[in-house]
Amino acid sequence: MGDTLVINRGPSETRVALLSNGVPVELYVEREHERGVVGNVYRGRVVRVLPGMQAAFVEIGLERTGFLYVDDAVLEPSRRDPEASPDAQSAVDIGSVLKSGQEVLVQVQKEPIGTKGARLTRQITIPGRNLVYMPFNPHVGISRRIEGEAERDRLRTTLERIVEPLGGGGIVRTAAENLEEERLLKEVHLLRQMWNDIEIRGSKAAAPSLVFEDLDLVLRATRDLFTDDIEGIVADSEIDFKRVQDFVAGFAPGEETRVRLHDPREPVFDHYGIEVEIERALDRRVWLKSGGYIVIDQAEALTVVDVNSGRFVGKSSLEDTITQINLEAVKEVVYQLRLRNVGGIVIIDFIDMELLANREKVLGALEEALKMDKAKTTIVRMSEIGLVEMTRKRVRESLGQLLTEPCSYCKGRGFIKSEQTVASEVLRAIARHMHRERSPTVLVNMNPGVADHLYAHDEAHVDYVERLFDTRGIPVARDGYHRERYEIVPAGLSPTFESESEESV
Asked: Which one, 68, 95, 136, 204, has least CB within 10 Å?
């Protein structure tokens, strides 16, 4: 079964899934009021230069200012690998490149993620169907997915000959494999004209303002993902069906027949089993077919994957059983990283293996599985205890960040204090209050579960506090109170003490 692009349009959001052998491996979501900004070009204003970080903040009209590193601010070929860490030292000082108040034309490289603003670059690229034009960089590159050396040489020579008189450079995309020179020439001139128009609009625009907006999700996914490996595109909306057909006919006449309209009465994501996989991708624990499982915990810049044997007991030696679980886990881990769009540092804790040969087997399987991932990944090393350190390029928010929000009850901690803990806090709070101010009767408003716990398990402790301070403490159950919230009310008075947790819940 070949790959398929599935497009689902809802009332307020559009989703596109890439299926490989019938299984969703990538998911993109775009909401009407939260359209992605990667690829957009803005006229921005430098608001602050940071010599200590060799970067600058640039106002481009979004909620947060963008971040521009020095190597992305220099309008000449970069002196380092563009995939390198932003912390890598540059030979150029940011202060010699940018000044506060300066207006610059910038493009968004990475979406705003979490508390971080968009990552920007002045080395603008104009993406097309078959290649990406780079007006400021004379480099010519070929997609790593084009493997034949003869074809790579042909495309490189052709593109160099085409772009030399125009200036700049380009990267040949996978879709251009075996494409005739005339088609490449036509597209290069089209992209060059687009850049000329952007440059003119940018010179006239006031900062901050949007100068060029990239295609919406449906057409962007069609442009970037619709290759010869894709059997077809399925859309559940008549509007998207016609838009995609016309778009495909424009760059690949005759291929529009591969675009199909799904019966809108049947949810298209249900038909292809995508909804089930989305739910799995939001779970912390993912079960393996053998009975083992992996646990995925995400922080802002670090993701930890823990491999566990679960119910799997194997049929031979312990070492073979562990190795088998780890090899099965490799496929699921790589699949989940890609589907969840996990970026940044990833630590995978495989089950300990005694034999070096088995550790190398698992590491080799991981390296092979990652070859299918379009995002750039780098395996740093594998320790003797089976701990793998790797990185995966982050361009947009992960699926979890996009589809979920911190729990309103636990505020994202993932846990809350137990009833026993809060009950003990209440007793200590009464003692502190009575030490400052004696009252014959004290009411304590609290969560019903905590009140029940005090009556059922801590009655002796309540009696002790009452005798110690010659007072009477009355737990009062209040519906709607968060478990960690409580307040002390001397009889006939206003509350004099609220739990410190109140403001955080």
From this structure: 204
Dist. CA 106–CA 222, nearest whole Å? 25
Reference 261, options 223, 231, 233, 222; nearest CA is: 233
Distance of CA 53 to the CA centre of its chain: 24
| 148 Cβ contact partners less than 8 Å away, ≥ 6 residues apart | none
Tell me: do 195 and 70 sit in the same domain. yes
Lookup: tokens for 296 = 């995925």
One domain for residues 439 and 352: no
- CATH number of the domain at 433, please: 3.40.1260.20
Q: 447: number of CA atoms within 13 Å, CB side?
A: 21
Question: Domain containing 234: what range?
Answer: 3-35+216-275
Tell whether the torsion through CA atoms of 64, 65, 68 and 74 is positive or negative.
positive
Q: What amino acid occupies position 80?
A: R
Give phi and psi for 193, each to the nearest 5.
Answer: -65, -40
List the beta bridge partners of residue 106. 42
Separation of alpha carbons 490 and 474, rounded Å: 10
Residues 425 and 491 in one domain: yes
Per-residue pLDDT of the chain (505 residues; tens, 9 = 90+): 579 999 999 988 999 999 999 999 999 999 887 788 999 999 999 999 999 999 999 999 999 999 999 999 998 654 444 444 444 456 789 999 999 999 999 999 998 887 789 999 999 999 999 999 999 999 999 998 898 999 999 999 999 999 988 889 999 998 899 989 999 999 999 999 999 999 999 999 999 999 999 999 999 999 999 988 899 999 999 999 999 999 999 888 899 999 999 998 899 999 999 999 999 999 999 999 989 999 999 887 899 999 999 887 777 788 899 999 999 999 999 999 999 999 999 999 999 999 999 999 999 999 999 998 988 999 988 888 879 999 999 878 889 988 988 888 988 888 999 999 999 999 999 988 888 888 888 899 999 999 999 999 988 988 998 899 888 888 999 999 999 999 998 765 556 666 755 443 3
Phi, psi of 497 (to 5 degrees): -155, 135
Q: Which helix (H) or strand (E) holds 250?
A: helix 238-251
Find, among 71, 99, 108, the residue nearest to 87 by Cα: 71
How many Å apart are CA 145 and CA 426, to the nearest integer? 63
Helix or strand (DSSP H, E) at 203: helix 181-204
Which of 232, 223, 221 is CA-nearest to residue 3?
232
Report the C-alpha gap between 171 and 186 in whole angstroms: 15
- Asked whether residue 412 is assigned to any structural domain, the reply reads no
Residues 227 and 267 in one domain: yes
Contacts of 463 (CB under 8 A, 6+ apart): none
Residue of 255, 272, 254 lying closest to 263 (CA atoms)? 272
